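Box S2. Input/output pair 1.
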Amino acid sequence: MNSLIALMVLAGPAAADAKPTCLPDSAPAAVIAVDRIAEIVTRRDGEMAIKRRVLSLPFVVRSEIRVQTSGRICRNAHDNYLRSLELGTDTELGPLIVAKIGQNRYVVVAVDRMDLREPSWAVYDQSWEEKILFRT
């Protein structure tokens, strides 16, 4: 029995219990992600207006794109992102980038999934209801 407890302690917490990591706006991957998001939400041309409508994102000025790192928001983003991508709760994700867009939208992406061919960027409302998955 003692060896089982020791093994559990050495193994560390299960992925579902681990604290998710959300990168700050100064992290290089976050800078890239915010630039990609800003391309969509700050441009006034017709092509981006259509893309915003499809992605359920508002038009905002760049200062209204704010990277989020609080524990509660990071946990909500992590849990809902796993659900959106239909990944099990035991799936280990790399750090997340969580950007709040305006007053009521969040864009979430895992750093290790930013450049995948399949949709891996998720848009949520303020209640963490998924709006759409997309790729950049």
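Box S3. Input/output pair 2.
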Amino acid sequence: MILQSFKEISFKYVLPLTVISFFTVTQWWYALPVDGVDTLYWGFPFPYVGEGWHTSGSLQFFILEVLADLLTYFLLCFALVSGMHKWVPSITSGKLFVRSLRALAIFYILGIVLVLSVSNPVFNFKRPYEWRMIDHGLVFIWQRTPRPDHPGAQPSFIPSDSIK
């Protein structure tokens, strides 16, 4: 009975909510990689995607961080849904609500597939370099990620008139 309830809760509510929350709210990280340029990363609690360096508009993905973030979101959604199911058992959801959750999750998955197909991504198992975080904040998918202006993030250049 408990296993059946676990499967039902997971497939009906938790998996769609995990996908929706994973792509809806995240954290941005403005960082300076070692021997690199200032770069924006996204992911909560671990940055799993960043701006690519090999071409404009490209992205770099870190598989280990994606898996850790997905597991974190799944556990948070499972705790939320099972807590609501335990403490407020009289709440029932109709087929329209469950189908809407699934449709929105599929829409988000198709959106990320589209982004992956046009962004020329690079996949790494783990971030292969060290970095110094300069700033961070939360962002929703519909918001533009701010690009902070920090003097420590830009490399210092030698003026051309001082070279003899």
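Caption for Box S3: Confidence is low (pLDDT under 50) at residues 156-160. The radius of gyration is 20 Å.
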